[in-house]
Every structure is written in structure tokens, then in C-alpha cells.
Design brief:
three-stranded antiparallel sheet; about 40% helix
């Protein structure tokens, strides 16, 4: 098995999650995090668990994974209606 085939079938990721409390939300914490694709170093900051799936999906597609219609529609709707946040 050559190195090229390993790159297509192996995509390691690192997910880091932490609680964050802001001055505006004293006493309330939100979870935050980021996911990193180890080989490329590409990183995405997370607001919810769906962000993890959206980040990994292109790599899965590259490996030949096919997503069902319900998942594709949900991702399309999420792009049309991004969540409202008070972050600046």
C-alpha cells in the first residue's frame, strides 16, 4: 500500500472543547472549541456539534462516503439560516 492511498483513507482530527464565560453572561458558560485536520493544519472554531460534522464531511466525501438526503438538506438549510450570535 503506497503513501497516496494512506492519505485518502486516514484523516486524523483533534477536537478541543472548553467552557467560556463572558462578562455579559456572568454565571453562564457556553462551550466553545475547535477542530483541526492534523495533516493540513486547517482549523474550524466550533459553536455547536453540527460544526464538527460539517468540518469532517468533505474529508469523508473524499473517502467515498455518501450522505443521505436528510443530512444534505439539513446542511443546506443551516447555510441559509446561520445561527444568530452576539459575538463581535
Amino acid at each position: 500500500m503506497g503513501m497516496d492511498s494512506l492519505e485518502v483513507t486516514n484523516h486524523p482530527f483533534v477536537v478541543r472543547i472548553w467552557l467560556e464565560e463572558t462578562a455579559e453572561e456572568a454565571g453562564q458558560a457556553r462551550w466553545r472549541g475547535h477542530i483541526t485536520h492534523v495533516p493540513s493544519g486547517k482549523r474550524c472554531y466550533l459553536r455547536d456539534l453540527d460544526d464538527i460534522i460539517a468540518f469532517i464531511a468533505p474529508y469523508l466525501k473524499e473517502m467515498g462516503v455518501q450522505f443521505d438526503l436528510r443530512w444534505r438538506v439539513r446542511q443546506w438549510l443551516k447555510r441559509l439560516n446561520p445561527p444568530l450570535t452576539s459575538e463581535t
